[in-house]
Design brief:
The chain is of the alpha/beta class. Helices cover 37% and strands 17% of the residues. Helix 9 links the parallel strand 8 and strand 9. The protein binds 1,4-dihydronicotinamide adenine dinucleotide and the ligand NCC(=O)COP(=O)(O)O. Homodimer.
């Protein structure tokens, strides 16, 4: 479904930020009510939660959060009073959280519906950005979705062909060339073309969404020592280096492929704006060592703004009261920043 244009929204007041509740069985409801009870976010935006009334009501009472649910049907009805939790109720699950329910296709579908609704609202300009709470990929699969996660689902729903996953923090930003696939499939999935696409997406979004005028990038190799001149693999010489060279020839400030064990240290020390990584854990391990608490997941290349927590559903601590809401707070703040600073409004994305 191609949806090439973003509707213009009036940003003279506070941006309206849609926040999906995520998997009801995970820590999504808890971090949501904790994040909203601080009043910090309501000073920056009008948050509108897309989720389930009973589940949120249970979270409010279990975690002793003094917010009142304000049920709305249109994001414009969002109350600016920080004492209210604005809710667009999309499901009515009637779960007994004290019985530790398991994932079902009904819960999985509700989780997916929050995302679909949020994307529709963002595409039509009724919200200025979408922030997503954590979901389980298995739950999405049980609901019949063919997508691995939000990133692929939202790209599809917005008709976006070229997109990328960025994990962003103040110290380090990483962007992934391949995302959710077996490690053994990674080498065959790397092409000069897709690496160059990710480099371009990164540069474009750093300029248009992060307000970075002249982005500097570093690119990681795939193999130990970036292949050591072909001794430990040929992907650097045959695929990655030609992509970096092509980007340099197009005038981009970019270096690589660099040895994966030192590229992150180099990037932080020299102030690179992002490191382009060849696979999921190559980027996420160093990123989460630094930004586990406050990292934000951002999808690049979309016609809408989508940020997310950097963590998952954390079933091991769900509904126990010890989940940390910092990543969600940072995801909302980044969504507000992007809504205010984006320079690509009304421009078609690929
Ligand atoms: N944005 C999203 O929707 C994401 C979803 N996932 C999904 O979540 C599920 C679980 O993934 P895992 O690999 O176990 O990662 P996870 O992030 O859910 O948990 C890893 C460890 O970190 C802890 N943790 C995570 N977030 C925390 C928080 N806010 N406060 C305190 N401790 C926290 C957990 O208790 C656990 O010990 C999987 O289905 C995965 O696909 C994973 C990452 C992001
Ligand atoms: N490791 C990041 C992750 O799994 C998040 O995926 P998505 O749901 O944002 O696509």
């Amino acid at each position: 479904m191609p949806v090439p244009f973003v509707k213009k929204t009036d940003l003279s007041g506070k941006p309206i930020i849609g926040i999906t509740m995520g998997d009801p069985l995970g820590i999504g409801p808890e971090i949501l009510v904790k994040a909203l009870c601080e009043n910090e976010l309501q000073a920056l935006c009008i948050p509108v939660v897309i989720g389930d009334q009973d589940v949120l009501h249970t979270a409010l009472s279990k975690f002793l959060i003094p917010l009142r649910i304000h049920k709305i049907h249109d994001p414009k009805q969002g109350n600016e009073d920080p004492g209210y939790l604005n809710l667009l109720a999309v499901s009515s699950l009637k779960l007994n959280m004290s019985m530790q329910p398991s994932m079902t296709s009904v819960i999985g579908k509700a989780m997916a519906d929050y995302i679909h609704t949020g994307v529709d609202l963002a595409l039509s300009g009724q919200i200025d950005a979408l922030v997503t709470g954590p979901i389980t990929k298995t739950g999405l699969k049980m609901a019949g979705s063919r997508f691995h996660g939000h990133t692929e689902l939202i790209a599809h729903q917005t008709g976006t062909r070229k997109f990328a996953m960025m994990l962003a923090g103040k110290t380090l930003k990483v962007v992934l060339v391949t995302i959710h696939m077996p490690l053994a499939s990674v080498p065959d999935s790397l092409t000069q073309e897709n690496i160059l696409d990710i480099i371009h997406l990164t540069c474009t979004d750093l300029k248009t969404r992060f307000n970075i005028k002249a982005p500097r990038l570093a690119v990681a190799g795939l193999n130990p020592h970036a292949g050591e001149a072909g001794l430990f693999g040929h992907e650097e010489q045959q695929i990655i280096a030609p992509a970096v060279k092509a980007a340099q020839n197009q005038g981009l400030d970019i270096q690589g492929p660099m040895p994966p064990d030192t590229v992150f240290n180099y990037a932080i020390k020299t102030g690179c704006d992002a490191v382009v990584c060849m696979y999921h854990d190559q980027g996420l391990i160093p990123f989460k060592l630094i930004h586990f608490k406050d990292g934000v997941n951002v999808t690049l290349g979309l016609p809408i703004i989508r940020t997310s927590v950097d963590h998952g559903t954390a079933y091991d601590i769900a509904w126990k009261g010890c989940a940390d809401p910092t990543s969600l707070v940072e995801a909302v703040k980044m969504a507000v920043f992007q809504a205010r600073h984006r320079t690509d409004r009304n421009l078609p994305h690929d």
